[in-house]
Amino acid sequence: MLELSDCTLRIDNYAISQWLTCRRKFWFRIIDGLVPNTPNGTARGFGASIHEALRVWYDPATCATDDKERFALTCNAFYAEWAKTGVEDAMRNTKVAESVLRQYCAKWSLEWFDPIHVEVGFAMPLTSDIIYEGRMDLIARDRASDKLIVVDHKTSARKPGSVMQEIKARQMSGYVWAAQQLSDVGVLCNSAIYNYVIITTQPQYERILTTRTREQLAEWVDATIRIVNEIRVANTFEDCYCNQEMCNMYSRCDYLELCNCPNGSRAALIAHKFTRKPWSAFEQGLIFSEEK
Ligand code: SF4
């Protein structure tokens, strides 16, 4: 599933995080292409809709409008996405979203960076036979230093725990590395921002600025190559070790019922509750290039 005919392996942080959290999960989603038929639940749908609103808020075309128009376009993006996925409840509904977005836009109305591109897709050769892919939420330029910054929006109901922090740190290293490759100069981007929107009864809006040195990025490249090689080896003998510590970590694993299902009933459960959708690291996106 992962291999192209020339043995090039395309990988992204999502696949790597599945591998590192539970090999069985990696197998179900990445190799077997199993996607649960459950609709995008309220929490996920709400987060995705706020995320879409932020995409529009930072779109340079939206930034060029006046404040009122910019906020209206941002809310409209939320409504359109929420209409597709949303199931309202007391915590997640249109009123809450408007309040969250109003507070967010007021708090961050005066940024120290200028948005350049939103939803930046990339597919970069990591080695001669590994392509690393992904999509950055925003590339912006720091007005003071003129350097590029990667911004990643994180919408969730709580701050991430240590396992998720590690996964996100890995993701950010990949983004900074990719932004350097895309910028074609290797020095214009060395930092990234986690842009948290924590949606609780008292929403929080936090930024964490993180930087990467050349040495740290070189370590990330080495570690990623090692993980990909592990995956390649495991692929040959179908290693799908269950890491049961992750079954209910943060939220219930989508594959719990399938994992607990006796072998003889598994095919029927898959037919009833899953769709096969081949995993693709990168489906669409704007390929970004930065002038020297
Ligand atoms: S239910 Fe647990 S063991 Fe099974 S795939 Fe999910 S995390 Fe892995």
Structure, explained:
The protein starts with 8 loop residues before the first strand and ends in a 5-residue tail after the last strand. The chain has ten helices and nine strands. The protein has helices at residues 13-21, 23-31, 42-58, 60-63, 67-85, 94-107, 162-183, 214-237, 256-260, 263-273; strands at 9-12, 34-36, 113-127, 130-142, 148-156, 189-198, 204-211, 274-276, 286-287. Mean pLDDT is 85; it is low at 284-292. The chain is 46% helix and 23% strand. It is α/β, with parallel strands linked by helices and 292 residues long. The strands form two sheets. Strands 1, 3, 4, 5, 6, 7 and 9 form a seven-stranded mixed beta sheet that branches. Strands 2-8 form a two-stranded antiparallel ribbon. It has a single domain, classed as Lambda Exonuclease, Chain A (Alpha-Beta Complex), CATH 3.90.320. The protein binds iron/sulfur cluster. Residues 22, 24-25, 242-244, 246-247, 253, 255-256, 259 line the site of iron/sulfur cluster. Iron/sulfur cluster binds next to α2 and α9.
